[in-house]
Request: fold
Amino acid sequence: MSKAPAAGQTHDWPAMRAAKAGLRRVFDGLERGAERLFSPALNPLSQLGAISFFLFWIVAVSGIYLFVFFDTGIVNAYSSVEWISGTHWYHAGVMRSFHRYASDLMVLSMALHLLREFSLDRYRGTRWFSWFTGIPLVWLLYVSGISGYWLVWDELAQYVAVTSAELLDVVPIFGEPLARNFLTPSHLSSRFFSLLVFMHIAVPLMLLFGMWIHIQRISRPRVNPPRLLAALVLAALLFVSLWKPALSQSPADLTKVPSEIGLDWFFLPLYPLAERWGGWGLWALLLGVSTMLAAMPWLPPFRRAPAAEIDLDHCNGCNRCVEDCPYEAIRLVPRTDGLPFPRQAEVSSDLCVSCGICMGSCPSSTPFRRTAELRTGIDLPGQPLREVRESVIDAAAELDGPERVMVLACEHGAGAGRLGGTVGFPCVAMVPPSLIDWILSRRLADGVVVAGCSESTCYNRLGVEWTKERLAGTRDPYLRKRVPRERLATIWASPFEANRFEAELAAFAAGLGALPPPPQAATPPAAAENQTEEQA
Ligand code: HEM
Ligand code: SF4
Ligand code: SF4
Reply:
């Protein structure tokens, strides 16, 4: 490879790196399978955040429906739930099952989402925010679910309520021990039960608020899965709801200790531990794991590449970089330099992850210039456009053989680390389409391969999508019509798909040999080099 990638995002502890690589391999295998089964756009593992949002709405709607029929008093709570699952199973009972299974599935999708973001290393440096704000979501989801189990007031509810109260009593925050409420039936007041009902409504609302905060630092967060995927989730829930409807256990009886209880292993796996270890042991585990998770974005400290920088002389405030930045790191502000444009771009270095996507989107980022120093409106100090052009020239010199194919590779995909005729980028969308035009029109290569991450797993969230749209001519800056498409290929492949990557690359190179020689460039290169993308 001609130039080392600039982002420097690989710095990690060896054990942490090994854990991520192992997990990544597992996810990669599952995802490629899911892509083959459905399609890259429907890969559920690449949309776990969106699926979690969708499941939240299912839980909320089914919960509101159930609330209409639920008796919030301690005396009739159980019988009202029995009515829901008994005579009215075909509407209210199904809703109850939806409520339970969608909650369970939300635990699963959240856990997978956490593991996947970890394996992709998308939580360190300036990306700490979504990870850090995800930790309270785990707590809030668990408290929401656990408080739901109390309301049925069956033996499981009794077990959960008594064990939870004992756990809370370890922490001296309540004047009276909570467990006292469950000593005998006469101790348990309807007022206390109503408090639990209130909690089961208030905590999910806090969860929703937390989910909103969670996505504040990413632009265009995917909070809705594609319709077909949503329909599949609904169909799966309906199937399980009819096959194994959610039912209550025997009614709670505070005069005796429940003997055999069926636990929900999604929400309650730690309850048996509470019995075995006692309250303090479990609190130590929960707080220890939460603190470690919260500290992870800084374990180890992330070596940050310098943030993107604006060059006002080349910025006309067109807004393209603002539109394309996946991390809300750019905004337009009033002009400060007297040039005849109302606005200029401004980068927040606290939010910028140095992906370079903005450089690829700026209309000034064109190599068709022969100025002493090639400059653009927004550039990456670690890998400026000037150096990119030099790297391409170096890479062209490395090409040999009958068909000379240059690879413009994302450092997170299968092309990363490739030697010879390759230029690496922190994200494939850092490649301005005019660079491809320049390479082919200058005959620096016979063909160009744009090599990104796998189609549904872009490390920088939107890089693959923007690249596809730019090449298809549906997003600015687009690849000009004159560029011979038969000399351009895209390969979306993860680092574990090196064989497929090389096979597709070889097939593309072989295909080039069968093409007629490219027509002479209409404009002599010397003149073209002084033109901008719009002028060319
Ligand atoms: C209720 C649970 C959760 C929901 C609904 C949720 C939802 C989302 C959504 C919609 C996104 C944006 C996905 C995209 O468009 O690329 C996202 C990103 C993310 N989430 Fe979550 N999430 C949840 C829990 C968590 C947890 C527990 C963690 C980890 C502790 C976490 C860590 C992250 C990270 C690191 C990102 C990526 C940020 C980036 O790309 O820079 N999330 N989440
Ligand atoms: S490099 Fe550009 S696109 Fe990427 S995060 Fe920074 S400002 Fe946004
Ligand atoms: S894309 Fe370039 S010209 Fe447009 S606002 Fe951003 S830096 Fe300025």
